[in-house]
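Subject: for your reference before the review

Hello V.,

The reviewers asked for a structural picture of the protein, and I figured it would be easier to keep everything in one thread rather than splitting it across files. Below is the amino acid sequence we used in the manuscript, unchanged from the supplementary table.
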Amino acid sequence: MAATLTAAPAARTNFGPMMIIGMLFFIFGFVTWLNGPLITFVKLAFQTNDFNAFLVPSAFYLSYFFLSLPASLVLRRTGMKKGMALGLFVMAIGALLFGQFVSMRVFAGALTGLFVIGAGLSLLQTASNPYISILGPIDSAAQRIAFMGICNKVAGILAPILIGTLVLHGIGDLDQKVKAADPVTRELLLNEFASRVHVPYMVIAGVLVLLAIWIARSSLPDIESASANSTPARAGDATASRGITHFPHLWLGVLCLFVYVGVEVMAGDAIGTYGAGFNLPLDQTKFFTAFTLGAMLLGYVAGLLLIPKIVSQQRYLAISAVLGVLFSIGAFLTHGYLSVGFVASLGFANAMMWPAIFPLAIKGLGALTERGSALLIMAIAGGAVIPQLFVHLKEHVDFQLAFLLLMVPCYLYILFYGLAGHRVGQQQ
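And here is what came back from the structure prediction:
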């Protein structure tokens, strides 16, 4: 007989593994949330427009789409623990490439570095998200992922502040100097500006290598998903024999994560571009991502306190989606800093969406957990697609209307998944 959802974790003490995985979430939160200020950075360093600047999140998030399924195959060979270490090594290579090519002002090379970082993260996330979901009872997984989210978003708050201080300081004045300079002086100014990113990314690469070695040698236990995340089998209906296509709640969850990551990136990475639509100064917009992540941090704390004792993870998901709709409408109906404040508040609405969607989508997959996880990680590509739609749409309609037209339908679908979609095809 297949094990129940809680059978495998029952005898384990989870504190140590949670601290280790929490550190991993801190690291990839720091790297991921550098993308927001990097959009501002590349616009100046490479003298490019919004379309090309938004290739920063596109290159980063598209790597999840192309490499998550291969990552699941790697994990089947290495196990989750070694897979996490390998993901950190790949991220280190990407950080080296990005830092080097940016300092040389080779835009295609810089995007390649971001793609490689995303490749390492796809491996790391394909392993770490199901790992923390099935480390304990699946019905309280949102609470554990909320703790991971706090680690992630604390790093995300620090990332734009640090890059804003170390790399983007004086960007408003520099932008004016570049516009007024002759061609030779302009190139010298831009070369100096681009070189600021080299040392920080070399440091990031070194830290990632050290962490990879530590994870590989740590006491982090391997978890067998086949026993830790299965449901009691009905006669002739074993999980493995059913196949991944027979879990509609997973496929609906893939689409849900796709639109969720899209709105998360819109609220976090695109908030600087949104603020620039009101002609707010660059020296202020470079920090806007930190405000969104601060709101997300508050959302995670609320989730930790409320789930599952007061409200279920699926009910909280529905509540969060309603807040997303209301805050998006608020952003549309207001202007300037107040409108930006509503966009930042979306961080609170978004906070508990990933922690709720992921465990709901992989529930009961058993031996197919890694494959289902890979499909969900592929859905992170929504972070590439939806912001690009925003950049193109705002060329034809007012940027606030473009924001509203993209965000509200996404939140409405998330609402559907929280209310009903997660139950489709599930055993009652």
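For the response letter, the relevant points are probably these. Residues 16 and 220 are 8 Å apart (CA to CA). The radius of gyration is 21 Å.

Happy to draft the paragraph if you're swamped.

O.
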